[in-house]
Amino acid sequence: MMTNRPVWIDTDTGVDDAFALVSAFKLPNIEVVGVSACAGNVELEKTFKNARNVLSLCGKEDIKVYKGSEKPLVVELHTAKHVHGEDGLGGIEIPQSNAKVEEESAFDALYKKAKELNGELTIVAIGPLTNIAITLFKYPDLVKYVKELVIMGGSIAVGGNTTIAAEFNIYVDPHAAQTIFKSGMKITLFPLDVTMKTVLNREEIDSLKDVYNKVAQFLYKASAIPMSLYERLGLGYKMCLHDTCPLLYLSDPTLFKGREAGVYVETQSEISLGRTLSDLYVHRDELFDKNALVMIDVDRDRVAKLVIDTFKAY
User: Fold this and answer.
1) Per the confidence metrics, is the pTM higher than 0.70?
2) Cα dist. 11→35, 97, 128, 290 in Å?
3) How many domains is the chain built from?
4) Which of 63, 46, 57 is nearest to 19 (CA)?
5) pLDDT digits over 20-52, tens only?
6) Cα 295 from chain centroid (whole Å)
7) Phi, psi of 124, deg, nearest 5
8) Which residues are catalytic?
9) What range does the domain containing 81 cover?
10) Fewest beta carbons less than 10 Å away: which of 61, 95, 235, 300?
């Protein structure tokens, strides 16, 4: 019997996704049972390759990686190469995975795993929600086989990071996101409100420089592009652990604080496409049905120590 919590990671593997994947294999209380790739930070062929290669770097070629959707449901694909580099990993080359290339689609594989685990599977979505939405369209009973869907995405009160209104993962496929928030799944959401607080500072990142394992060296080098971008934007020289947050939470929920709220996604307006609308900070119960646990605060110091320790453990 599986004692750790079984987790499926759906990712558009860029630099912060790589941080999340690396952390997942060393954090206590969780066990990664599958990975699916979607288009987002870069195109699908690159995110699929990156996910496979990062798993191989971590010595996890036994965990299968499946290819999902190459484009959003309705809108054109919008990538983030200015943050993650042309290849998605900051131009840092890592050895190619020797794992068998899985032919089964992410949608079929995810549903099969959820059904096999009979309601115990947790999905961690750290990219656009396209794959999850398509799986739900194809298999409407997926809802009853998913214990929890933990999402990195959205922005409630701090503004967007892709447009003035929208966070990247939701903006890339707002129609998929709205589908998920209306699905009835148990959802825990990590918006920018909390992920922008979940950071490694310069000193903490620099501490990896002299850690002589290949994983820590890769992360140290790959972090240079996003950290330089944050500095140019006047946000300080830091690495935001956006996509690592859901995995940290599943490993130790006491690291974060949140509240139940209603969350929905704007899919019609051009100027605010992808905006996550919520009654989180409005004290009127009649606005929205409460469909998500929304995280709003983090114990940053505990997180930083835990994450750095996981990287050094390789």
Assistant:
1) yes
2) 7, 17, 8, 26
3) 1
4) 57
5) 999 999 999 999 999 999 999 999 999 999 999
6) 14
7) -110, 115
8) 242
9) 5-312
10) 95
